[in-house]
Amino acid sequence: MTNFSVIQEDITSLNVDAIVNAANSSLLGGGGVDGAIHRAAGIGLLEECRRLPDGQQGRCPTGEARITGAYNLPCKKIIHTVGPVWHGGKYGEAALLASCYKNSIELAAKNGLSSIAFPNISTGVFGYPKEEAAKIAVKTSSEVCACLNKIEKIIFVCFDLLNYKLYKELLSI
Ligand code: AR6
Prior knowledge:
With 173 residues, the chain is an alpha/beta fold. It has helices spanning 32-41, 43-51, 93-110, 130-148, 161-171; strands at residues 3-8, 18-23, 65-69, 77-82, 115-118, 153-158. The structure holds ligand AR6.
């Protein structure tokens, strides 16, 4: 059984197996949580990301996930995923956001990682409505974890109070 929890915290401070980064397709850093993770992890992370294969849609297409070392962070690994930019909801955003959670959890399990901390993917710069995004995060993670039966702990890391309250309500905690 997977334990689901919610905290209001800076994700870079967490001592879990994997933290998830809400990245962009270049995987070369940016603002928001991506910027915070790169700053705290140090230059080694950027160097490893640069070495990842770069394809037509960048190093990580929207909805997919990639794994790297964690360098100066207390976690073991970083899973980078690229959420969809919100364009009004009719451009497959929900399915792409669900893929981010699914692919990140599956990649963690494949690498023997059983505690994962997620930020609120796409709800910052990419503009995804917070309530809809939270519902997708909780539903998808619950389904994927139940199916895999390998993940001990999922932590939804909220930076703002609205997200924190939304997740608490959805998880009934
Ligand atoms: N710890 C936890 N959550 C955080 C932190 C932190 N240190 N910093 C911000 N958040 P965003 P996106 C929250 O914009 O919408 C970047 O430039 C934030 O409050 O980081 O997926 C990338 O390079 C929000 O709730 O990610 C991409 O270009 C959540 O993290 C683009 O932004 C996600 O906000 C990705 O946009």
